[in-house]
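Lab notebook page, bench 4
Experiment: in silico fold of construct C2
Operator: M.H.
Input chain length: 402 residues
Purpose: comparison with the prior construct
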Amino acid sequence: MPNFRYRALTQTGELVNGTISAPTAAEVAARIEYLRLLPIETVEEKRIASSGGWGRFNKPSAAEVTTFTRDLALLLKAGARLDDALELLASDADVGRLRPVVGKLRGALLSGESLADAVATHPALFPRMYVALVRVGELSGTLDQVLEMLGTERARAEQMRRRLADAMQYPLFVLIAAIGVMLFFMLFVLPQFSSVLQDFGSRSDSALGMFISISEFMRANGTALMLASAALVAAAWTLPRRPGTRTGVIGGLARMPGIAGIFGYYRTSLFCRNLGVLLGSGVSLTASLRILVDIMAVTGEVDAWSEAADRVRHGGKLSEALSASMSLPPMALRMLRLGEETGQLPTLAGRVAEFYEAKLQRSLDRIVGIIGPLAIVTISAVVGGLIVSVMTALLSVTQLVG
């Protein structure tokens, strides 16, 4: 059944609006008149699945959620009421594709729900941590401060992801260019020399013969290889976006010798950053750990984090619980233990996160600096070896002709 957004006047001249589910606009008008309201406008809302059922190109982005969070905090700090601030943001172009969702949030707010309950109906956009912090802000009367802090943390995380993506663009471009050069050489250049060598009956070395065989196979099965490559690219694009597959892939990468250390930095910074944010916003330690179990599920170690949360819930210390599950490095555990003893756990958790984020960034910079030159050297060696083999075979042909 479609939803209709309406605006109407009360008998005292006050403007009200809301959302009604009805089969037709006429039914909505009848219901509004039954409430003794004078209808002004009735608009059918486009259906947006709260569980994340957007199309690939119209789903609100994380950046739009961050913009909404920071703008809402600014409006609340300026003295605007929550429903008025949501009404303004529902028509703000900066919010982009999130505007229909903001309209739904305002409708839920006017119907008596809290903002935390309203955003909880959109888990694909507002994660559990977001909902918990909004609930704390509403209960403590510091919603503007909580939203400002939440927006700042989201912007920081997005900036870090953007830096990593920008750093990977160069090596990715080099790899794609190298693959393109190899395909061009195998499909168009090598067959020309192959026909010449076969006509003169020249014997080629084993490496050149292997590449000629690969070239002939690729040319003979070009259509099938293109379809297989397209299917592989589609699978590589879609499978990591499924929660179960993504967790398995990340867990597998975390066990690789060359990546385990870098992944440990990421895991530590992710846990400590979110722990500091939750505790600093007034969420209890046990409630924070329940939320963090869901957040840390992306690391593929759900059982270890759940075990640590259970130990704390039964009276254990956080540092001891994490030490038993071997979830964090020793230095991070010492800092968290010091935070527990001094009562400054939120502050020290944030400092641990900053320390390991810096180590993560340095490690990734080193890897990115190696990938590009390594790809260039590898492709140069392969193509150079092929050229030498081809030229050697051609020289033997000229000697036979001479």
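Observations: Residues 47-52, 244-250 have pLDDT under 50 and may be disordered. The first strand starts at residue 3 and ends at 9.
Next step: discuss at group meeting.
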